[in-house]
Fold gibberellin 2beta-dioxygenase.
Amino acid sequence: MVVATPTPLLRRGKKKTAAFGVPTIDLSDDKSIASEMIVKACEDYGFFKVVNHGVPKKVIARMEREAVDFFSRPVSEKGRAGPAAPFGYGSKSIGFNGDKGDLEYILLEANPLSLSQRAKNFSNDPSTFSLVTNDYVSAVRKLSCDILELVAEGLWIEDNSIFSKLISNSHNDSCFRVNHYPPFIAPNSNHNRDDDEDELNNNHWDLSPNPSKSRVGFGEHTDPQILTILRSNDVSGLQIYTHDGFWIPVPPDPNEFFVFVGDSFQALTNGRFTSVRHRVESINSWTSRMSMMYFAAPALDAWISAPPQINNIITTNIYRPFKWGDFKQIVYSLRLADSRLDYFKNHTQS
Ligand SMILES: C=C1C[C@]23C[C@@]1(O)CC[C@H]2[C@@]12CC[C@H](O)[C@@](C)(C(=O)O1)[C@H]2[C@@H]3C(=O)O
Ligand SMILES: O=C(O)CCC(=O)C(=O)O
Ligand SMILES: [Fe+2]
């Protein structure tokens, strides 16, 4: 595993960016090693990559194919699966409060019933779409549970299912999103189109010169859930924000998964882990970026509160216990970039 300290690489205007070695956890390693490394990555960055994750390549490839097929449809057809409210097909608008991004997306509830009910909006072969999506979601849910069990072990909590049971609960409120970012070529760039690029439908995207060198794909934010499991194709754009104030580009890796600590995990660990701010900037590419995120969330009536075992050093609770459903309401009343956990801080905290 490489965990390098971020070192400044390039500066653009006032924006600080840097390169670093993404903490990488090999899930085939000895459990005690993997669990210790995951806890360290969650504390240092709230972000890491997992390899030897056990999700079959075929499951990923079939999900990707379904999503490519959907995004390749004519705009008028895709529009019938929207607007996202919040579930469904969305284009350029994110959430209900005016956030915009250069992307189109599918947002779905990750439970089998809802997936099968919505499948007809996304495919001419709904039963295959729902089967493939279910297989993908089940595989990444299992991966989330494995990671959460390792976290509990790394924190020396006796009940290693203390976190995983929140998302394996049959009423879990997890969701699944596929984002599709159009190609972007900055003006005056010498970027050449590769012949072998398997380009997704781009007939409705504006590829004319843009005055800036990059475009906002998905604005900066933290994910509200417990964990996010992300897989993308080979096109870059994802950046994470580190504690020392750097935006770090994350090199894509289509065979592996990236894991993000979400706000609810920050609260469940009484601030020992921090949810990682991240964003997507479209940077020179003739091909589109496609990413798939599984957002692991508990049931709406589940309490988010740090177990006493977390508090072996700091004994004050930073956050008031809250129900996931109440937190979600606040989340949807706010903008993408807002710090929503602040609403649940104990009054004694500054
Ligand atoms: C602007 C918004 C979109 C979002 C809900 C919110 O009000 C603030 C958080 C956003 C976010 C970010 C992570 C996930 O992509 C997401 C599904 C989530 O749970 O919170 C989105 C929400 C969304 O796009 O509906
Ligand atoms: O598309 C990506 O790579 C990340 C998107 C994201 O952060 C989100 O959908 O919450
Ligand atoms: Fe996110």
